[in-house]
Specification:
Helix content of chain A: over 70%
Strand order of the largest sheet of chain A: 1-2
Keywords (chain B): Membrane, Transmembrane, Transmembrane helix
Radius of gyration of chain A: 22 Å
Low-confidence stretches of chain A: 497-505
Shape of chain A: globular
Number of domains of chain B: 2
Strand content of chain B: under 5%
Number of domains of chain A: 1
Largest sheet of chain B: none
Protein name (chain A): Putative tricarboxylic transport membrane protein
Protein name (chain B): Putative tricarboxylic transport membrane protein
Radius of gyration of chain B: 23 Å
Structural class of chain A: mainly alpha
Number of helices of chain B: 5
Order of helices and strands of chain A: HHHHHHHHEEHHHHHHHHHHHHH
Largest interface: A-B, 65 and 73 residues
Low-confidence stretches of chain B: none
Order of helices and strands of chain B: HHHHH
Pfam family, one (chain B): TctB
Largest sheet of chain A: 2 strands, antiparallel
Number of strands of chain B: 0
Oligomer: heterodimer
Mean pLDDT of chain B: 88
InterPro entries (chain B): DUF1468
Mean pLDDT of chain A: 85
Helix content of chain B: over 70%
Number of helices of chain A: 21
């Protein structure tokens, strides 16, 4: 019961006025970010990181703010899914299937209330899972040497490419691009500059925040420019009524929520999957299991509860590998990792030993944030509905300008802003070409760490490459990596959301 | 076709990357692997990925018509100019102009766009600088 006493300490950390205030702010901003189409969790968190950093927040409060945003976005995505039939972010895609039909039947209030409760259930149990599973994973991770870490990083890229993208080659291209970008700058071990082409600004390497904000946020602006005038002006019929769900409806969905939570949690813990896959699996499974009267897709409340429980549970699950191993499993957790690295905190097993206040304070804050989100998202949901009416022609310039403010605040350098615009263009082209952005980010973030571990391993073995397969643990990780990369080819694309394919055409904001 | 271009670009990039990696000058302290080996592995992965994209390309994406590409190029130009002029003209003026131009191209009427630009610039200035104390670019007149 170590975990429980640590958690109690965590509550002591989290229950300060400042931290509760930040959690509330994060929940509020997160719900808005999730609800606005075109602004999803990874995007929103990416824009806010430089701000949290330049405001000089210490690690724990900064992390509380941003993970609250992350949890909040998972709640917020459902609002526009249900009311407008436009997913507010990618994980909320499956919620449109039954949420919008429910709204058309005049049950918008019920759908919003039920999905809010499902979100709460998913996030709550996933956070409990985080409390118990993360310390176990840490125990395993303490056995890792450099060779195992190198294999683990490879595993993260491999499963990301295998499960989460449509074309393994493009995922490999994306990973290589990201890793290549990370190589720019002075080599940490020998002190020689690499790939700098004599440009002094590049000696420090490219700040990953610059890359992330450019790739995610600015590319979104360009996509909007391309598609302006084609989007449907939604908000046609937004009568919500009372936001409550009858007890019978909730009772009928309890099993659904719990199943969705379990599946979503597993999907979240697996590297490379994330919340979109969580909500997809939860919905399809529930449909197979319970759709006896063919009501799914026509406004069945269980079709709203399952994906919402699934994506919120996945969001909590995805934090586990990020915190315990330092290897994020999804886009947004990659962005959160970027923030930790910016604050000079290296996640991984040592984090639990050297900074338990950060970890447990964060986890306690997640419980608090989850309660706040339930309160914000059921009684006050109409407030967020109004935000949906802000047209993109005002929203997008604001997003772009806030991105610039954040990056300029960190470095005060015009050069970084130029590089960021460059990344925006790169992000736009990659999204058009269907090259996933998450491996690029992961590469930029993990590149140096991955190389360091490879070189350490080979220093230990004095240049003998067989050390990479030197332990059963390492071999297991390699096997996993290969299976994760190739299995989707062999067993077909069973796990891949079909409907997501269409909507994702341009690489909707990853979770 | 787009994928083939992507593949060729990847292979060229990989070649450049590997060539650069072999050119890294090492000093006295060298570990068994050295600073060039991992970049070479990355280059090989990039080249293989590019090769696959050439051999088995996906269907081409819907590229926007030239007019829209011009719009995007214009937005890029606005952003680059913004980055350049930020230290010269200060935060509020640069941001108001840049946000107005972007808003105008995103479909606002010119007057509404200009107003929105001013509101965005002043709003960010008030919230982030005056309330939160973030340092923004100072122009000749201090804001």
């Amino acid at each position: 019961m170590d975990a429980l006493s640590s958690l109690l300490d965590g509550f002591a950390v989290a229950l300060t006025v400042q931290n509760i205030g930040l959690a509330l702010l994060g929940c509020f901003l997160g719900t808005i970010i999730g609800a606005l189409p075109g602004l999803g969790p990874s995007n929103g968190v990416a824009i806010l990181i430089p701000l949290a950093f330049t405001l000089g927040l210490p690690a724990t409060p900064a992390l509380i703010l941003l993970t609250s945003v992350y949890y909040g976005a998972m709640y917020g995505g459902r609002i526009s899914s249900i009311l407008l039939n436009i997913p507010g972010d990618e994980p909320a895609l499956m919620t449109t299937l039954d949420g919008y039909p429910m709204a058309k039947k005049g049950q918008a209030g019920e759908a919003l209330a039920l999905s809010g409760i499902a979100s709460f259930v998913g996030a709550f149990f996933a956070t409990i899972g985080l409390v118990f599973l993360a310390p176990q994973l840490v125990k395993v991770a303490l056995l890792f040497g450099p060779a195992e870490y190198f294999a683990l990083f490879t595993l993260a890229f491999a499963t990301l490419g295998g499960v989460a993208s449509r074309n393994q080659a493009k995922a490999a291209i994306a990973a290589a691009l990201g890793l290549g970008i990370a190589m720019i700058g002075v080599d940490h071990q020998t002190g020689v500059p690499r790939f700098t082409f004599g440009e002094v600004h590049l000696y420090d390497g490219i700040d990953f925040l610059v890359a992330i904000v450019g790739l995610f946020a600015l590319s979104e602006v360009f996509l909007f420019l391309e598609h302006k005038g084609q989007g449907k002006a939604g908000a046609a019929d937004m009568k919500i009524g009372r936001v409550t769900a009858p007890w019978s409806m909730i009772k009928g969905s309890i099993g659904t929520m719990l199943r969705g939570t379990g599946l979503g949690f597993v999907a979240g813990v697996l590297p490379g999957a994330g919340a979109s896959l969580g909500s997809f699996i939860a919905y399809t499974f529930e449909k197979r299991l319970s759709d006896k009267d063919k009501t799914f897709g026509k406004g069945d409340p269980r079709g709203v509860a399952a994906p919402e429980a699934g994506n919120n549970a996945a969001a909590g699950g995805a934090l586990i590998p990020m915190l315990a191993l330092g290897v994020p499993g999804s886009g947004t957790t990659a962005v959160l990792l970027a923030m930790l690295l910016t604050l000079n905190i290296t996640p991984g097993p040592l984090l639990f030993q050297s900074n338990p206040d950060v970890v447990w304070g964060l986890i306690a804050a997640l419980f608090i944030a989850n309660v706040m989100l339930l309160l914000l998202n059921i009684p006050m949901v109409s407030l967020f509905v109004r935000v949906l009416l802000v047209p993109p022609r005002y929203l997008m310039p604001t997003v772009a300008m806030i991105s610039f403010v954040g990056i300029y605040g960190i470095s005060g350098s015009t050069f970084d802003l130029m590089v960021m615009v460059g990344f925006g263009v790169l992000g736009y082209v990659l999204r058009k070409l269907d090259v996933p952005l998450v491996p690029v980010i992961l590469g930029v973030l993990l590149g140096n760490e991955m190389e360091k571990n490879l070189r350490r391993a080979l220093t230990i073995s004095d240049g003998d490459w067989s050390i990479l397969l030197g332990s059963p643990l390492a071999i297991g990780l390699w096997v996993f990596a290969i299976v994760g990369f190739l299995a989707p080819l062999i067993i077909g694309r069973y796990f891949r959301p079909k409907i997501a394919d269409e909507a994702k055409g341009e690489g909707a904001d990853p979770d | 076709m787009s994928d083939r271009v992507l593949g060729v670009v990847c292979i060229l990039l990989a070649a450049l990357f590997i060539w650069q990696a072999t050119q890294i000058e090492t000093g006295f302290i060298v570990d068994p692997l050295g600073p060039g080996a991992f970049p070479i592995i990355i280059g090989v992965v990039l080249a293989l990925g590019g090769l696959y994209a050439i051999v088995r390309p996906d269907a081409a994406p819907d590229w926007p018509p030239p007019g829209r590409l011009l719009e995007i190029a214009f937005a890029v130009a606005v952003m680059l100019a913004y980055a350049l002029f930020l230290p010269e003209f200060g935060f509020v003026l640069s941001t108001a102009v840049a946000a107005s131009l972007l808003g105008w191209r995103l479909g606002s009427r010119p007057l509404a766009a200009a107003l929105a630009g001013i509101v965005i610039a002043v709003g960010i200035y008030v919230i982030f600088h005056l309330v939160l104390g973030l340092s923004l670019a100072r122009g000749p007149w201090g804001f």
